[in-house]
Write a structure and sequence with these properties.
There is one protein chain. The protein is α+β, with helices and mostly antiparallel strands. The protein contains 7 helices and 4 strands. Strand 2 (23-24) and strand 3 (30-34) form a beta hairpin. The longest helix is centred in the middle third of the chain and has 29 residues, at 99-127. 29% of the residues are buried.
């Protein structure tokens, strides 16, 4: 992957790896130009998260044998925190000290939460060209990107066992450390998220 950005004085910088991030767009929203490597990487990561949370995400899931009202409300059959640590981070319990209340809350919210995360991921895939290029996001699209990037960071952070001092970890990493590539990607996603937040607020 590219280790530098190619600047464009009349537009946003190329977002490669690492990347500079987003800038405000005329008329609102945000814009960036993604290098091919950056676009491919982000699309892959977002797609993986979408697949992970995909249950009930399509909106036309098979409800045969289930309560029709429950299907309309996207009621989940799950009442327990997922065993997969990444899913547990993406779909946390609402009440840590009350398993019964957490389970009941999960039944009513998990399906919609999964669908929302899948929709945010799809918004990224719909607006980010496969081979890179300029991305122009409306305010609504930018909000979806924020949610999708945050989900990818959460998932990657779990896999890498990222802690609050991850930047210090990154500074101390040797190139042959097996976590190096993952942490550099995590850092790049943080830049994307931070610059998008700055543009929107």
């Amino acid at each position: 992957m590219s280790d530098r950005l190619v600047s464009d004085s009349e537009g946003p910088a190329d977002v490669g790896y690492p990347g500079s991030g987003f800038r405000g767009a005329r008329g609102g929203g945000a814009t960036a130009r993604f290098a091919p490597e950056g676009a491919m990487l982000l699309r892959t990561l977002v797609s993986q998260v979408a697949e992970l949370v995909g249950e009930y995400a399509a909106g036309d899931e098979d409800t045969e044998g289930r309560d029709p009202l429950g299907g309309m409300l996207r009621l989940s059959d799950n009442s327990r925190l997922p065993d997969d640590p990444v899913l547990a981070r993406l779909l946390p319990d609402a009440y840590r000290d009350d398993p019964e209340a957490a389970g009941e809350f999960r039944r009513y919210t998990e399906g919609s939460l999964r669908a929302s995360k899948a929709a945010a991921a799809q918004a990224v895939l719909d607006t980010l060209p496969e081979h890179g290029g300029r991305v122009r996001l409306s305010a609504d699209d930018a909000q979806a990107w924020l949610r999708a990037i945050n989900d990818v960071r959460l998932a990657l952070g779990v896999r890498l066992e990222v802690t609050e001092d991850w930047e210090a970890m990154l500074d101390r990493l040797q190139e042959d450390d097996p976590r190096a590539a993952g942490l550099w990607i995590y850092d790049w996603l943080t830049v994307l998220q931070d610059t998008l937040v700055q543009v929107l607020w």
